[in-house]
Known about the structure:
The protein is α/β, with parallel strands linked by helices.
Amino acid sequence: MSGASPPLYVRARLVWPVDRPPVDDGVVCVEGDLIRAIGPAAEVPAPAGARRVDLGEVVVLPGLVNAHCHLDYTGMAGQVAPTGSFTDWIKTITALKGGWSREEFRRSWLAGAAMLVRRGVTTVGDIEAVPELLPEVWRGTPLRVISFLEMTGVKSRRDPAQILAEAVARAEALPVGRCGVGLSPHAPYSTVPELLRLSAAAARTRGWRLSIHVAESAEEFEMFRHRRGPLYTWLARNGRDNADCDGVSPVQHLARHGLPGPEVLAAHANYLAAGDAELLARHGVAVVHCPRSHAYFGHRPFPWSGLRRAGVTVCLGTDSLVTVPPSEEPVLDLFAEMRRFQAQHPGVPPAEVVCMVTVHAAQALGLAGRAGTLNPGAWADLIAVPFAGRPEEVAAAVVQHQGDIRAGMIGGVWTVRPPEFAEP
Protein backbone atom coordinates (compact mmCIF):
# COMPACT_ATOMS: atom_id res chain seq x y z
CA MET A 1 0.00 0.00 0.00
CA SER A 2 1.16 3.51 -0.70
CA GLY A 3 2.03 5.85 2.13
CA ALA A 4 0.63 8.82 0.14
CA SER A 5 -2.78 8.65 1.82
CA PRO A 6 -3.13 10.73 4.98
CA PRO A 7 -2.80 8.86 8.28
CA LEU A 8 -5.97 7.61 9.92
CA TYR A 9 -6.81 8.22 13.57
CA VAL A 10 -9.54 5.71 14.39
CA ARG A 11 -11.39 6.06 17.68
CA ALA A 12 -13.75 3.46 19.21
CA ARG A 13 -15.58 2.71 22.43
CA LEU A 14 -13.04 -0.08 22.92
CA VAL A 15 -9.87 -1.18 21.12
CA TRP A 16 -8.85 -4.77 21.80
CA PRO A 17 -5.53 -6.09 20.46
CA VAL A 18 -6.56 -9.58 21.75
CA ASP A 19 -3.03 -10.44 22.90
CA ARG A 20 -3.30 -7.83 25.64
CA PRO A 21 -6.14 -6.15 27.56
CA PRO A 22 -8.68 -3.90 25.84
CA VAL A 23 -8.28 -0.14 25.80
CA ASP A 24 -11.31 1.90 26.84
CA ASP A 25 -11.99 4.96 24.66
CA GLY A 26 -9.16 3.76 22.45
CA VAL A 27 -7.59 4.84 19.20
CA VAL A 28 -5.61 3.14 16.45
CA CYS A 29 -3.23 5.23 14.37
CA VAL A 30 -2.73 3.92 10.84
CA GLU A 31 -0.02 5.16 8.50
CA GLY A 32 0.20 3.56 5.09
CA ASP A 33 -0.50 -0.15 5.51
CA LEU A 34 0.76 -0.46 9.10
CA ILE A 35 -0.40 0.31 12.60
CA ARG A 36 1.80 2.99 14.13
CA ALA A 37 0.23 3.35 17.58
CA ILE A 38 -2.70 2.29 19.73
CA GLY A 39 -3.80 3.42 23.17
CA PRO A 40 -6.24 5.63 25.06
CA ALA A 41 -7.46 8.61 23.06
CA ALA A 42 -6.31 10.90 25.87
CA GLU A 43 -2.72 9.64 25.57
CA VAL A 44 -2.18 9.03 21.83
CA PRO A 45 -2.02 12.22 19.78
CA ALA A 46 -3.24 12.28 16.22
CA PRO A 47 -0.45 12.51 13.61
CA ALA A 48 -0.23 15.76 11.67
CA GLY A 49 -2.75 15.78 8.84
CA ALA A 50 -4.51 12.63 10.06
CA ARG A 51 -8.10 11.97 9.14
CA ARG A 52 -10.10 11.35 12.30
CA VAL A 53 -12.67 8.58 12.20
CA ASP A 54 -14.95 8.00 15.20
CA LEU A 55 -16.56 4.56 14.95
CA GLY A 56 -18.62 5.12 18.07
CA GLU A 57 -20.05 2.26 20.13
CA VAL A 58 -17.97 -0.58 18.72
CA VAL A 59 -15.01 -2.69 19.61
CA VAL A 60 -12.13 -2.53 17.17
CA LEU A 61 -10.11 -5.76 17.06
CA PRO A 62 -7.72 -7.47 14.66
CA GLY A 63 -9.14 -8.80 11.43
CA LEU A 64 -10.07 -12.46 11.78
CA VAL A 65 -7.76 -15.14 10.39
CA ASN A 66 -9.46 -18.16 8.81
CA ALA A 67 -6.92 -20.97 8.92
CA HIS A 68 -8.76 -23.48 6.71
CA CYS A 69 -11.17 -22.81 3.88
CA HIS A 70 -12.24 -24.10 0.45
CA LEU A 71 -13.39 -20.96 -1.36
CA ASP A 72 -13.90 -22.67 -4.70
CA TYR A 73 -16.64 -24.89 -3.20
CA THR A 74 -18.80 -21.95 -2.02
CA GLY A 75 -21.37 -22.37 -4.79
CA MET A 76 -21.93 -26.00 -3.78
CA ALA A 77 -23.75 -24.99 -0.60
CA GLY A 78 -26.70 -27.26 0.08
CA GLN A 79 -25.92 -29.62 -2.80
CA VAL A 80 -24.52 -32.52 -0.73
CA ALA A 81 -26.80 -33.78 2.03
CA PRO A 82 -25.16 -35.10 5.20
CA THR A 83 -24.54 -38.82 5.05
CA GLY A 84 -23.55 -41.37 7.61
CA SER A 85 -20.58 -42.40 5.46
CA PHE A 86 -17.55 -40.18 4.91
CA THR A 87 -16.59 -42.40 1.97
CA ASP A 88 -19.95 -41.83 0.30
CA TRP A 89 -19.56 -38.09 0.85
CA ILE A 90 -16.17 -38.15 -0.89
CA LYS A 91 -17.67 -39.99 -3.85
CA THR A 92 -20.49 -37.46 -4.11
CA ILE A 93 -18.37 -34.33 -3.95
CA THR A 94 -15.81 -35.80 -6.35
CA ALA A 95 -18.58 -36.37 -8.90
CA LEU A 96 -19.99 -32.87 -8.28
CA LYS A 97 -16.60 -31.22 -8.80
CA GLY A 98 -16.08 -33.20 -11.99
CA GLY A 99 -19.14 -31.57 -13.54
CA TRP A 100 -18.10 -27.99 -12.82
CA SER A 101 -16.44 -25.61 -15.27
CA ARG A 102 -13.52 -23.31 -14.55
CA GLU A 103 -15.91 -20.35 -14.66
CA GLU A 104 -18.18 -21.93 -12.05
CA PHE A 105 -15.21 -22.46 -9.74
CA ARG A 106 -14.07 -18.86 -10.32
CA ARG A 107 -17.44 -17.36 -9.44
CA SER A 108 -17.70 -19.66 -6.44
CA TRP A 109 -14.24 -18.66 -5.15
CA LEU A 110 -14.99 -14.94 -5.46
CA ALA A 111 -18.41 -15.27 -3.82
CA GLY A 112 -16.81 -17.02 -0.85
CA ALA A 113 -14.11 -14.38 -0.57
CA ALA A 114 -16.74 -11.63 -0.49
CA MET A 115 -18.56 -13.46 2.31
CA LEU A 116 -15.40 -13.65 4.39
CA VAL A 117 -14.75 -9.92 4.02
CA ARG A 118 -18.30 -9.03 5.11
CA ARG A 119 -17.96 -11.32 8.14
CA GLY A 120 -14.67 -9.87 9.34
CA VAL A 121 -11.95 -12.10 7.87
CA THR A 122 -8.87 -10.30 6.60
CA THR A 123 -6.56 -13.32 6.08
CA VAL A 124 -7.44 -16.82 4.90
CA GLY A 125 -5.58 -20.07 4.37
CA ASP A 126 -7.35 -21.51 1.33
CA ILE A 127 -7.02 -24.98 -0.19
CA GLU A 128 -6.80 -24.57 -3.96
CA ALA A 129 -8.30 -27.54 -5.79
CA VAL A 130 -8.32 -25.45 -8.99
CA PRO A 131 -4.97 -23.63 -8.92
CA GLU A 132 -5.52 -22.48 -12.49
CA LEU A 133 -7.68 -19.73 -10.96
CA LEU A 134 -4.56 -18.08 -9.54
CA PRO A 135 -3.58 -15.26 -9.59
CA GLU A 136 -6.75 -13.97 -11.27
CA VAL A 137 -8.95 -14.53 -8.22
CA TRP A 138 -6.37 -12.92 -5.95
CA ARG A 139 -6.95 -9.69 -7.84
CA GLY A 140 -10.70 -10.00 -7.26
CA THR A 141 -10.52 -9.73 -3.45
CA PRO A 142 -8.84 -7.47 -0.90
CA LEU A 143 -8.18 -10.50 1.33
CA ARG A 144 -4.73 -11.69 2.20
CA VAL A 145 -4.79 -15.26 0.91
CA ILE A 146 -2.34 -18.08 1.59
CA SER A 147 -3.19 -20.43 -1.27
CA PHE A 148 -2.31 -24.04 -0.51
CA LEU A 149 -1.98 -25.87 -3.82
CA GLU A 150 -3.75 -29.19 -3.45
CA MET A 151 -2.14 -32.45 -4.60
CA THR A 152 -3.54 -35.98 -4.71
CA GLY A 153 -2.42 -38.71 -7.08
CA VAL A 154 -4.01 -42.03 -6.12
CA LYS A 155 -6.43 -42.40 -9.02
CA SER A 156 -4.11 -40.78 -11.58
CA ARG A 157 -1.22 -43.09 -10.57
CA ARG A 158 1.15 -40.29 -11.54
CA ASP A 159 4.72 -40.09 -10.29
CA PRO A 160 4.75 -38.20 -6.95
CA ALA A 161 7.89 -36.31 -7.92
CA GLN A 162 6.17 -35.02 -11.06
CA ILE A 163 3.02 -34.06 -9.16
CA LEU A 164 5.09 -32.04 -6.71
CA ALA A 165 7.31 -30.50 -9.40
CA GLU A 166 4.25 -29.16 -11.21
CA ALA A 167 2.79 -27.68 -8.02
CA VAL A 168 6.09 -26.06 -7.06
CA ALA A 169 6.59 -24.63 -10.54
CA ARG A 170 3.09 -23.15 -10.49
CA ALA A 171 3.61 -21.71 -7.00
CA GLU A 172 6.98 -20.19 -7.83
CA ALA A 173 5.53 -18.52 -10.93
CA LEU A 174 2.84 -16.69 -8.95
CA PRO A 175 3.31 -12.98 -8.12
CA VAL A 176 3.56 -13.35 -4.33
CA GLY A 177 2.89 -10.15 -2.40
CA ARG A 178 -0.29 -9.47 -0.48
CA CYS A 179 -1.14 -13.11 -1.21
CA GLY A 180 1.19 -16.08 -0.84
CA VAL A 181 1.45 -19.80 -1.46
CA GLY A 182 1.85 -23.09 0.32
CA LEU A 183 1.46 -26.79 -0.42
CA SER A 184 -1.37 -29.15 0.42
CA PRO A 185 -0.92 -32.88 -0.07
CA HIS A 186 -4.64 -33.50 0.37
CA ALA A 187 -4.79 -36.26 2.98
CA PRO A 188 -2.98 -39.47 3.94
CA TYR A 189 -5.61 -41.60 2.21
CA SER A 190 -5.56 -39.63 -1.08
CA THR A 191 -1.78 -39.48 -1.42
CA VAL A 192 1.16 -41.86 -1.24
CA PRO A 193 4.02 -41.74 1.28
CA GLU A 194 6.55 -40.43 -1.24
CA LEU A 195 4.39 -37.40 -2.00
CA LEU A 196 4.20 -36.65 1.73
CA ARG A 197 7.98 -36.85 2.12
CA LEU A 198 8.70 -34.76 -0.96
CA SER A 199 6.09 -32.13 -0.05
CA ALA A 200 7.49 -31.71 3.44
CA ALA A 201 11.02 -31.26 2.10
CA ALA A 202 9.90 -28.79 -0.56
CA ALA A 203 7.93 -26.67 1.92
CA ARG A 204 10.81 -26.52 4.40
CA THR A 205 13.35 -25.64 1.73
CA ARG A 206 11.23 -22.74 0.47
CA GLY A 207 9.87 -21.48 3.78
CA TRP A 208 6.28 -22.33 2.80
CA ARG A 209 3.43 -23.50 5.00
CA LEU A 210 1.92 -26.95 4.39
CA SER A 211 -1.72 -27.85 5.09
CA ILE A 212 -3.09 -31.40 5.16
CA HIS A 213 -6.43 -32.97 6.07
CA VAL A 214 -5.65 -35.66 8.63
CA ALA A 215 -7.62 -37.90 10.99
CA GLU A 216 -10.79 -36.26 9.76
CA SER A 217 -13.08 -39.29 9.90
CA ALA A 218 -13.55 -42.56 11.74
CA GLU A 219 -13.26 -44.31 8.36
CA GLU A 220 -9.80 -42.81 7.76
CA PHE A 221 -8.71 -43.90 11.24
CA GLU A 222 -10.05 -47.41 10.61
CA MET A 223 -8.26 -47.57 7.27
CA PHE A 224 -4.80 -46.88 8.66
CA ARG A 225 -5.12 -48.41 12.10
CA HIS A 226 -7.03 -51.59 11.24
CA ARG A 227 -6.64 -52.07 7.45
CA ARG A 228 -10.37 -52.29 6.88
CA GLY A 229 -13.54 -50.29 6.42
CA PRO A 230 -15.38 -48.58 3.56
CA LEU A 231 -12.62 -46.05 2.77
CA TYR A 232 -9.95 -48.77 2.72
CA THR A 233 -12.05 -50.97 0.42
CA TRP A 234 -13.10 -48.19 -1.97
CA LEU A 235 -9.57 -46.87 -2.40
CA ALA A 236 -8.18 -50.36 -2.93
CA ARG A 237 -10.73 -50.89 -5.69
CA ASN A 238 -9.57 -47.62 -7.25
CA GLY A 239 -5.95 -48.67 -7.40
CA ARG A 240 -4.46 -47.38 -4.15
CA ASP A 241 -1.66 -49.55 -2.80
CA ASN A 242 -2.79 -49.84 0.81
CA ALA A 243 0.43 -51.42 2.02
CA ASP A 244 1.15 -48.22 3.99
CA CYS A 245 -1.90 -48.93 6.18
CA ASP A 246 -0.02 -50.94 8.75
CA GLY A 247 -1.55 -50.49 12.16
CA VAL A 248 -0.77 -46.90 13.05
CA SER A 249 -3.04 -43.87 13.33
CA PRO A 250 -3.22 -41.31 10.49
CA VAL A 251 -1.15 -38.88 12.58
CA GLN A 252 1.49 -41.53 13.23
CA HIS A 253 1.44 -42.33 9.51
CA LEU A 254 2.42 -38.73 8.77
CA ALA A 255 5.23 -38.93 11.32
CA ARG A 256 6.59 -42.10 9.71
CA HIS A 257 6.95 -40.22 6.47
CA GLY A 258 8.57 -37.05 7.76
CA LEU A 259 5.67 -34.66 7.47
CA PRO A 260 5.13 -33.12 10.95
CA GLY A 261 6.92 -29.85 11.61
CA PRO A 262 6.24 -26.28 12.75
CA GLU A 263 5.26 -25.26 9.21
CA VAL A 264 2.40 -27.80 9.10
CA LEU A 265 -1.31 -27.16 9.66
CA ALA A 266 -3.25 -30.33 10.43
CA ALA A 267 -6.85 -29.76 9.39
CA HIS A 268 -9.48 -31.51 11.55
CA ALA A 269 -7.49 -34.05 13.67
CA ASN A 270 -10.78 -35.40 14.99
CA TYR A 271 -9.74 -39.03 15.56
CA LEU A 272 -6.54 -39.38 17.57
CA ALA A 273 -4.83 -42.40 19.11
CA ALA A 274 -2.99 -42.34 22.41
CA GLY A 275 0.12 -40.20 22.04
CA ASP A 276 -1.02 -38.40 18.86
CA ALA A 277 -1.61 -35.07 20.58
CA GLU A 278 1.84 -35.22 22.18
CA LEU A 279 3.38 -36.11 18.80
CA LEU A 280 1.77 -33.06 17.18
CA ALA A 281 2.91 -30.83 20.04
CA ARG A 282 6.46 -32.16 19.93
CA HIS A 283 6.75 -31.23 16.26
CA GLY A 284 5.03 -27.85 16.60
CA VAL A 285 2.11 -28.80 14.33
CA ALA A 286 -0.94 -26.53 14.58
CA VAL A 287 -4.43 -28.06 14.40
CA VAL A 288 -7.30 -26.35 12.61
CA HIS A 289 -10.75 -27.26 13.90
CA CYS A 290 -13.84 -26.48 11.81
CA PRO A 291 -16.77 -26.69 14.25
CA ARG A 292 -19.69 -26.47 11.81
CA SER A 293 -18.14 -29.01 9.43
CA HIS A 294 -17.55 -31.25 12.46
CA ALA A 295 -21.25 -31.03 13.30
CA TYR A 296 -22.31 -31.66 9.68
CA PHE A 297 -20.49 -35.01 9.67
CA GLY A 298 -21.61 -35.96 13.16
CA HIS A 299 -18.07 -36.72 14.30
CA ARG A 300 -17.33 -37.75 17.86
CA PRO A 301 -16.46 -34.81 20.18
CA PHE A 302 -13.41 -32.85 19.06
CA PRO A 303 -10.40 -33.78 21.28
CA TRP A 304 -9.91 -30.21 22.46
CA SER A 305 -8.79 -30.87 26.01
CA GLY A 306 -6.19 -33.46 25.03
CA LEU A 307 -4.71 -31.21 22.36
CA ARG A 308 -4.51 -28.19 24.63
CA ARG A 309 -3.15 -30.24 27.53
CA ALA A 310 -0.37 -31.46 25.22
CA GLY A 311 0.41 -27.87 24.18
CA VAL A 312 -0.88 -27.97 20.60
CA THR A 313 -1.83 -24.64 19.03
CA VAL A 314 -5.48 -24.95 18.00
CA CYS A 315 -7.19 -22.49 15.69
CA LEU A 316 -10.48 -22.36 13.83
CA GLY A 317 -11.48 -22.47 10.18
CA THR A 318 -14.68 -22.44 8.20
CA ASP A 319 -13.97 -25.38 5.88
CA SER A 320 -16.39 -25.04 2.91
CA LEU A 321 -20.08 -24.29 2.56
CA VAL A 322 -20.58 -27.87 1.38
CA THR A 323 -20.27 -28.94 5.01
CA VAL A 324 -22.39 -26.35 6.78
CA PRO A 325 -25.29 -28.03 8.62
CA PRO A 326 -28.55 -27.52 6.70
CA SER A 327 -30.07 -25.66 9.66
CA GLU A 328 -27.41 -22.91 9.53
CA GLU A 329 -27.04 -19.85 7.33
CA PRO A 330 -24.97 -20.80 4.26
CA VAL A 331 -22.32 -18.13 4.76
CA LEU A 332 -18.61 -18.52 5.45
CA ASP A 333 -18.54 -17.01 8.92
CA LEU A 334 -15.87 -17.35 11.62
CA PHE A 335 -18.21 -15.79 14.18
CA ALA A 336 -20.58 -18.72 13.59
CA GLU A 337 -17.64 -21.11 14.05
CA MET A 338 -16.75 -19.41 17.34
CA ARG A 339 -20.33 -19.65 18.57
CA ARG A 340 -20.52 -23.33 17.66
CA PHE A 341 -17.19 -24.04 19.38
CA GLN A 342 -18.25 -22.16 22.52
CA ALA A 343 -21.52 -24.08 22.66
CA GLN A 344 -19.66 -27.39 22.44
CA HIS A 345 -16.92 -26.33 24.88
CA PRO A 346 -18.60 -23.95 27.36
CA GLY A 347 -15.70 -24.18 29.80
CA VAL A 348 -13.27 -22.49 27.41
CA PRO A 349 -12.96 -18.75 28.19
CA PRO A 350 -14.35 -16.59 25.36
CA ALA A 351 -11.02 -14.72 25.13
CA GLU A 352 -9.29 -17.99 24.27
CA VAL A 353 -11.88 -18.68 21.58
CA VAL A 354 -11.16 -15.29 20.00
CA CYS A 355 -7.44 -16.08 20.10
CA MET A 356 -8.20 -19.13 17.95
CA VAL A 357 -9.27 -16.87 15.06
CA THR A 358 -6.64 -14.18 15.58
CA VAL A 359 -3.37 -14.76 17.43
CA HIS A 360 -3.24 -18.56 17.12
CA ALA A 361 -4.40 -18.66 13.52
CA ALA A 362 -1.88 -16.03 12.47
CA GLN A 363 0.86 -18.02 14.18
CA ALA A 364 -0.24 -21.19 12.38
CA LEU A 365 -0.02 -19.43 9.01
CA GLY A 366 3.42 -18.01 9.77
CA LEU A 367 2.12 -14.46 10.25
CA ALA A 368 2.68 -13.93 13.97
CA GLY A 369 3.09 -10.25 14.83
CA ARG A 370 1.79 -9.14 11.44
CA ALA A 371 -1.78 -10.46 11.44
CA GLY A 372 -4.12 -11.33 14.28
CA THR A 373 -3.12 -8.47 16.55
CA LEU A 374 -3.23 -4.69 16.83
CA ASN A 375 0.25 -3.54 17.76
CA PRO A 376 2.71 -1.04 16.33
CA GLY A 377 4.32 -2.52 13.23
CA ALA A 378 1.49 -4.99 12.55
CA TRP A 379 -0.52 -4.83 9.35
CA ALA A 380 -3.38 -2.36 9.50
CA ASP A 381 -5.97 -5.15 9.28
CA LEU A 382 -8.81 -4.43 11.67
CA ILE A 383 -12.54 -4.83 12.06
CA ALA A 384 -15.28 -3.25 14.17
CA VAL A 385 -18.36 -4.91 15.66
CA PRO A 386 -21.03 -3.27 17.81
CA PHE A 387 -20.20 -3.07 21.52
CA ALA A 388 -21.39 -0.83 24.33
CA GLY A 389 -20.60 -2.89 27.41
CA ARG A 390 -17.82 -3.07 29.96
CA PRO A 391 -14.27 -4.05 28.90
CA GLU A 392 -14.49 -7.36 30.78
CA GLU A 393 -17.50 -8.32 28.62
CA VAL A 394 -15.86 -7.78 25.26
CA ALA A 395 -14.63 -11.32 24.53
CA ALA A 396 -18.06 -12.86 25.08
CA ALA A 397 -19.65 -10.14 22.94
CA VAL A 398 -17.25 -10.82 20.06
CA VAL A 399 -17.87 -14.57 20.17
CA GLN A 400 -21.64 -14.01 20.14
CA HIS A 401 -21.65 -11.41 17.36
CA GLN A 402 -23.97 -12.25 14.47
CA GLY A 403 -24.13 -10.81 10.98
CA ASP A 404 -21.85 -8.52 9.04
CA ILE A 405 -19.21 -6.37 10.68
CA ARG A 406 -19.69 -2.62 11.16
CA ALA A 407 -16.40 -1.73 9.47
CA GLY A 408 -13.27 -3.44 8.18
CA MET A 409 -9.82 -2.55 6.89
CA ILE A 410 -7.00 -4.46 5.20
CA GLY A 411 -3.62 -2.83 4.81
CA GLY A 412 -4.99 0.59 5.76
CA VAL A 413 -7.76 0.51 3.14
CA TRP A 414 -11.41 0.24 4.09
CA THR A 415 -12.90 -3.02 2.81
CA VAL A 416 -16.16 -2.57 4.71
CA ARG A 417 -16.63 1.17 4.94
CA PRO A 418 -17.97 2.60 8.20
CA PRO A 419 -21.59 3.76 7.94
CA GLU A 420 -20.36 7.31 8.31
CA PHE A 421 -17.17 9.19 9.09
CA ALA A 422 -17.64 11.31 12.19
CA GLU A 423 -15.13 14.12 12.36
CA PRO A 424 -14.58 15.20 16.02
